[in-house]
Write a structure and sequence with these properties.
Layout: H1 2-22, H2 24-27, H3 31-54, H4 64-82, H5 86-108, H6 117-136, E1 146-147, H7 160-183, H8 186-203, H9 208-234, E2 236-237, H10 239-243, H11 246-258, H12 264-282, H13 289-303, H14 307-314, H15 316-333, H16 339-355, E3 403-414, E4 417-428, E5 432-436, H17 443-451, E6 458-463, E7 466-467, H18 473-479, E8 481-483, H19 496-506, H20 513-526, H21 542-555, E9 560-564, H22 572-587, E10 591-595, H23 599-605, E11 608-613, E12 616-621, H24 623-627, H25 630-644
Parallel strand pairs: 5-10, 5-11, 8-9, 9-10
Antiparallel strand pairs: 1-2, 3-4, 3-6, 6-7, 11-12
Bound molecules: adenosine-5'-triphosphate.
Biased composition (Basic and acidic residues): 364-376
Transmembrane segments: 31-53, 60-80, 86-111, 118-136, 163-182, 214-236, 288-305, 317-336, 342-358
Keywords: ATP-binding, Cell membrane, Membrane, Nucleotide-binding, Transmembrane, Transmembrane helix, Transport
C-alpha cells in the first residue's frame, strides 16, 4: 500500500536528518546550518498544518496564528508560570489547539454560507480575539509576555539548538507523514472532492462535515505542537509574536508557492521561502522580507497558481540540472558569497526553470469510443436490456412496483415564493418518470428536496421506507438516491475515471480505491465515456460532461436516479445518444426521474409523466393520457409546444 510504503520512507528521512544533529560536530557541520534547518522545519510543520485544511479541502484560513498562539501560550504559561514539565506541555498544547480548531470548525462548517471569503474572515477574527483575551488576562499574559524556561534534555543531544532542531524535526516529519497519509487515503479523496465541488461530494455520499472537522482538528493538532516548540525557540512569548498576521501570511505564501493539493507542496514552499529570507537578512535586506513575500504571492497567483510541486513533478530533471549547474559554477568560480549563497542561487535557478512557461501537460489520450450497443432506432421503446450492465447488485433496486419514494403534502417556500405547495407523489421501483412543467413550476426544487439539498417547509418524505426529512444528503445517497445537476459539476482536479471512482468509494456500497477505479471503467462504458477515462473534465465537451454526471450518479448504486435537465444544451444527435444512455441505465434496474423540457424526449422515454404547475401537482399518469389532458395543454403544452414546435 502506498501510504504504508511512504511512511517507511519518512522514518528513514527522519533518522538521516536526526543524524545531522547527533553527529554534527563529527560531521563538521556549523551550528548556523542547523539553526537554519530548525527554522525551515518549524515552517514546514506550520505550512503542512495549514495545508491539510486549507489546501486539501479549499477552506482558506487566515487563522493559523490562533493555533500557533494557543500552542505557544500553553507551553509558556504551564511551563513558565506553573512549573509543568515541558514534555508534558507539548501534547497538551496540541490538544488545546485541536479543541479550538474543532470549536471554530463546529461553528463554521455547520452553515453553508460560511464558505469562501466568509470562512477566511471568520478565521481571521479568531487570533484577534485570542490576542485581546491574552492581553487582558493576567493569568495568561496581561500584556507582559511570558518567559519560557529551557527544559532539561539528554547530553547526547548536544547543545540547546541541536535539541530544538530534533524536536522541530520530529514534529515536521510527523506532520508531513500525516499529510502524505491523508492524501493517499479516503480522507484525502474526500477533502479533494470538497475542494472541487462540495455539494456534489455530499450528494455522492461523502460525509463532508465529518471530514472537514477531522481536517481542521489535524491542522489544530500540528499547529499547536509546532507552536509549543516555537515558544521554546523564542524563549519569551508575546501576543505580537504569535497572534499577528505574519504567521498566516507566511504559511499561505509557502503553500501557494509549493502547491496546495500535494503533501510535498508546503515542504517545498517552506524551504524555498526560508532560504530566500535568510539570504535577504544576511545581505542586509531584512526589511524587504514582506515586500519579497508579497511579490512572490502576486506573481504566483498569475504565473503558477498550481504551485512549484506540480511543475517540478512534470519536469524534474531540468530543475535538478539547473540547481547542480548554478551551484557548481558558483563554487568553482568562487568569486562571490558563501556556499549557502551558491546553493540558494542554484535553488532560485531551479525555481525559474520550473516556472518557465513551457508546453502544456500532454492532454489525455482519447481512445476511440466503444461501439454503441444500443440501437438508436429503438428510441421510443422503453423496455428491453441492451449493451452493458451496471456492476453487481444492479438489478431492480427494490421489488418491481415497490414504493421507493413517497412524498406527502410536501411544500417548500422561499420567503413568499411557493416553489412547491402540498405535493403528494409516489415513485415505484422500475418506473421512468418524466417530471415536466413550465419554467419555475418547482421541478428542480422537488429534485433538491428528494436528494436532501433542500429541506421541505412542511410535509413528509420517505425513500425505501425511510424518513429522509432532515437527513444529510450523504445519508440520503446511502439510502439510495442519486442525482445529476443541470449544469454539470465534475471534480475538476480529478480525471474522468477518478470522478466516477470517487462516487464508488463513497456510495451505497463503498469500495477501496483500486477496486473503485476498476469498477469506474464499467460505469464509464455504460455511458460511452470509457475512451475518456484518463481525461480531465476541462478537456471534455458539454455532452461528455453530462454523461460524466450520469456515470458518477449510477456509480453510487442508487435505487432512484434523479436526472435534472441532463439533456440541456445538447444538439439533436447528442440528445439521441444521451436518451440511449438513459434507457440503458433504466434497463439495468434503476428507477429514474427525468426533468426535461423536451416533450418529444419525455414521450419517448417515460413510462409515466408527472406535471407540476406553479408548485402544485397538475397531472400524473401515463404519457398519452397526461399529454392530452386539457389542463396540461392549457398550463404547459400550449405555450411550450408552440414555442418549441414540439
Ligand atoms: N433558492 C431559491 N431562492 C428563492 N427562490 C427560489 C430558489 N430556488 C427556486 N426558487 C423559486 O422557486 C420556484 C421554482 O423554481 P424551480 O427551479 O424549482 O423551478 P423549475 O420548474 O425547475 O424551473 P426551470 O424549468 O426553469 O428550471 C421559482 O419561482 C424559483 O424562482
Amino acid at each position: 500500500m502506498i501510504a504504508a510504503r511512504g511512511l517507511g520512507g519518512f522514518a528513514v528521512v527522519f533518522m538521516a536528518l536526526a543524524a545531522l544533529a547527533v553527529w554534527r560536530e563529527d560531521l563538521g557541520l556549523p551550528m548556523f546550518y542547523l539553526v537554519l534547518a530548525s527554522t525551515a522545519l518549524f515552517w514546514v510543520a506550520q505550512a503542512t498544518s495549514w495545508n491539510v485544511l486549507s489546501g486539501y479541502s479549499g477552506y482558506f484560513s487566515f487563522g493559523q496564528g490562533a493555533f500557533v498562539g494557543v500552542g505557544a501560550y500553553t507551553t509558556a504559561v504551564l511551563g513558565g508560570r506553573h512549573g509543568v514539565d515541558f514534555y508534558l506541555t507539548v501534547p497538551v498544547a496540541a490538544v488545546f489547539s485541536a479543541v479550538l480548531a474543532l470549536i471554530v470548525g463546529g461553528l463554521a462548517f455547520r452553515l453553508r454560507s460560511f464558505r469562501g471569503e466568509i470562512f477566511a474572515l471568520l478565521t481571521l477574527a479568531v487570533p484577534f480575539i485570542l490576542a485581546a483575551f491574552a492581553r487582558v488576562n493576567s493569568e495568561i499574559d496581561g500584556g507582559q509576555g511570558v518567559v519560557v524556561p529551557v527544559p532539561e534534555f539528554p547530553e547526547w543531544m548536544g547543545q540547546f539548538q541541536d535539541f530544538l532542531y530534533l524536536l522541530n524535526l520530529l514534529v515536521a516529519v510527523v506532520a508531513v507523514a500525516a499529510a502524505f497519509a491523508i492524501q493517499h487515503t479516503r480522507f484525502g479523496w474526500a477533502l479533494a472532492s470538497i475542494r472541487d465541488a462540495e455539494d456534489v461530494a455530499e450528494g455522492l455520499g461523502v460525509a463532508t462535515f465529518r471530514y472537514k472537522m477531522l481536517a481542521i482538528a489535524v491542522t489544530g493538532l500540528i499547529g499547536g505542537a509546532a507552536g509549543s516548540l516555537f515558544a521554546l525557540q523564542i524563549g519569551f512569548v508575546t501576543v505580537e509574536s504569535v497572534f499577528g498576521l505574519t504567521i498566516p501570511l507566511f504559511v499561505i505564501v509557502m503553500s501557494v508557492l509549493g502547491g496546495r493539493t500535494h503533501w510535498f507542496g508546503p515542504v517545498l514552499g517552506a524551504v524555498v521561502i526560508v532560504l530566500i529570507q535568510d539570504r535577504l537578512s544576511a545581505s542586509g535586506f531584512e526589511g524587504w522580507n514582506l515586500i519579497v513575500l508579497g511579490a512572490i504571492l502576486a506573481v504566483l497567483v498569475v504565473v503558477a497558481p498550481d504551485g512549484l510541486q506540480a511543475r517540478l513533478w512534470r519536469r524534474p530533471w531540468p530543475a535538478v540540472a539547473a540547481l547542480v549547474l548554478v551551484t557548481g559554477v558558483l563554487a568553482v568560480v568562487d568569486a562571490w558569497g558563501t556556499p549557502l549563497d551558491w546553493f540558494v542561487s542554484g535553488v532560485l535557478a531551479a525555481v525559474a526553470v520550473v516556472l518557465w512557461p513551457g508546453h502544456a501537460p500532454a492532454s489525455a489520450e482519447r481512445r476511440p469510443p466503444a461501439p454503441d450497443h444500443v440501437d438508436l432506432g429503438e428510441i421510443g421503446e422503453s423496455t428491453g436490456h441492451s449493451g452493458q450492465q451496471l456492476p453487481e447488485n444492479s438489478k431492480i433496486n427494490g421489488e418491481p412496483g415497490e414504493v421507493l419514494v413517497e412524498c406527502r403534502e410536501v411544500s417548500r417556500y422561499f420567503g413568499g415564493v411557493r416553489a412547491l405547495d402540498g405535493v403528494s407523489l409516489q415513485l415505484r421501483a422500475g418506473e421512468l418518470v418524466g417530471l415536466v412543467g413550465p419554467n419555475g413550476s418547482g421541478k428542480t426544487t422537488l429534485v433538491n428536496l428528494v436528494s436532501g439539498a433542500l429541506r421541505p417547509t412542511s410535509g413528509t418524505m420517505a425513500v425505501a421506507g425511510r424518513d429522509i426529512v432532515g437527513l444529510a444528503p450523504h445519508r440520503i445517497a446511502h439510502v439510495g438516491v442519486s442525482r445529476t445537476h443541470q449544469i454539470p459539476k465534475p471534480f475538476e482536479s480529478m480525471t474522468v475515471r477518478d470522478n466516477v471512482a470517487m462516487a464508488i468509494m463513497f456510495g451505497r456500497q463503498p469500495r477501496p480505491l483500486t477496486a473503485a477505479r476498476e469498477e469506474a471503467e464499467q460505469c464509464l462504458d455504460i455511458v460511452h465515456l470509457g475512451h475518456l477515462a484518463g481525461a480531465r473534465p476541462a478537456e471534455i465537451n458539454l455532452h461528455e460532461r453530462q454523461l460524466l454526471e450520469m456515470a458518477r450518479a449510477i456509480a453510487t448504486k442508487p435505487k432512484v436516479l434523479l436526472l435534472d435537465e441532463a439533456l440541456a444544451g445538447l444538439n439533436p444527435a447528442e440528445i439521441d445518444a444521451a436518451v440511449a444512455v438513459v434507457r440503458r441505465i433504466h434497463a439495468s434496474g434503476i428507477t429514474i426521474v427525468i426533468v426535461e423540457h423536451l416533450l418529444r424526449v419525455v414521450n419517448q422515454l417515460a413510462t409515466r409523466v408527472v406535471v407540476l404547475n406553479r408548485g402544485r401537482l397538475l397531472a400524473d399518469g401515463d404519457p398519452r393520457t397526461v399529454m392530452s389532458d386539457p389542463d396540461v395543454i392549457r398550463a404547459y403544452l400550449g405555450r411550450h409546444a408552440h414555442a418549441r414546435g414540439s
